[in-house]
Amino acid sequence: MKTLLLLVxxxxxxxxxxxxxxxxxxxxxSDPQNMDVIYSGEAKYVGNETxxxxxxxxxxEYSQEAKDASIDDDVMVSFDVNxxxxxxxxxxxxxxGFNIDEQIVDAIKKMEFKPAxxxxxxxxxxxxxxxxxxxxxxx
Length: 139
What we know:
By secondary structure, the chain is of the alpha+beta class. It has helices at 2-17, 49-59, 64-68, 100-109; strands spanning 39-41, 44-45, 72-81, 87-94, 113-114, 116-118, 121-123, 125-134.
């Protein structure tokens, strides 16, 4: 009986001492590759948004076909703003045709953008612009 009690006591002490006390802060990442990312500034046009859209709209020359088509849609353009402010990788996500999409991309390519800032470093960021297009035959 003493032997059994001794074995049970040893197992109990071993089990209790084997428990690890978690002193790790659960709010922090343990993997340095998964650090907190803080954007202090998103990529954006250097002027204000109203001016940006005004430049885009002034650059569009509507064909008679586009006017007659009575377009009531949006053009969605995706592109990257590099850490140096240069634009690349333009994709027309949704277009309206009639060469309007290409004119919008050409206008955006001529604009100046500020890069995004993450943790104090300028980085590349994707920007998605939605440009409403409304045409009618009396334009």
